[in-house]
Amino acid sequence: MVNLPAAVLDSLSGLAFGDAFGDRWFGILRREGPAALEARILPPEPLWRWSDDTAQALVLVRELAEGGGTVDRDRLALRLAEAYADDTHRGYGASMHDVLRRIGAGEPWREVVAEQFDGQGSWGNGAAMRVAPLGAWHAADLDAVAEQAAAQSTVSHHHPEAAAGAVAVALAAALAARSRGGPAPARPDFLQEVAARLPDSDVRSGVRIAARMPAHTSVRHAAEVLGSGYRMSGPDTVPYALWCAAGHLDDLCEGLWSTVAGRGDIDTTCAVVGGVIAARTGVAALPPAWHAAREPLPPVGSR
Fold first, then answer.
1. By its UniProt entry, which Pfam families does this protein fall under (predicted)?
2. Is 299 a member of any domain?
3. Separation CA 254–CA 152 (nearest Å)
């Protein structure tokens, strides 16, 4: 079994915790309304299932392990399609059902993803939600982080905003991993460093706005200004999620509670936050009940 860097396994585990934690709040909010969220009440459930966010992150980590950190896009596209075919009930978005079915049926992935949304390609948040462990893998080389994050994006999302979102999350995870064992960067500095390495895009503009927000900004206001994933696009998901992560780089539990309070696409925003923060902190400090409740991850490697 391939030995994976500790930060990669931590990031993957944190991503899965965030995904499963956020995903269950859709049902809780429908049944009990926002009072349960405001009170931070977690009704007991036998299992916290993770969604397509984690399913795709697992595929990506296996691809990195086999490729020595380099993404083979043809192989990754097929692996994503195979994982989808094995379990189609993980909450995949409508366009991804079409993309992954067609790739699995043998259609060329480049043509399939380029045809989405009248030839614009998807600018959804799917490439960003799975990518944090890649950033942790390449933490020592931020140029490689950006290159490989953009490459893995293209197998499912043709739009440049989707790629920018993926690069932003991967850079954030890399910077978090680089800070392991040292003081946490200040939120503005952390976000500005991410933005400085992004291409001209709405994602970069959003991250820059997030970096300039005053320290006393509330989660609700940040979600309203930045967007918390209601449109499920890269630009309206990634800046908010990174704002949440950057403010809680030493506290994964609080980071997830803060993120879910912004509502929106909460499994994805929490997956991003979990993947970024855990690249620095690991997941050991999460409550034991959370560890007992979350669906286990299949083996992908060892430390």
1. ADP_ribosyl_GH
2. no
3. 30
Its domain, for residue 208, covers 6-293
* Tens digits of residue pLDDT in 226-235: 998 888 888 8
Average predicted confidence (pLDDT) for the chain: 92
Burial grade of 93 (CB within 10 A; 0-12, 13-18, 19 or more)? middle
pTM, to two decimals: 0.95
Q: What is the CA radius of gyration of the chain?
A: 17
* Interatomic CA distance for residues 284 and 287, integer angstroms: 8
Measured over the CA atoms of residue 204, residue 260, residue 7 and residue 280, the dihedral's sign is positive
**Tokens at 240, concatenated:** 């908010």
Residue 290's pLDDT band, with cuts at 50, 70 and 90, is very high
Question: Region 167-181: what's the mean pLDDT?
Answer: 97
Residue at 302 is within a domain = no
- pLDDT attached to residue 301: 64
On whether residue 218 sits in a domain, the answer given is yes
Looking at residue 96, its pLDDT comes to 84
State both tokens at 123. Answer: 């600018």
Look at the chain and report how many structural domains it folds into: 1
Structure tokens at 225: 């200004």
Can you give the CATH number for the domain in which 150 is found? 1.10.4080.10
Q: Is residue 91 part of a domain?
A: yes
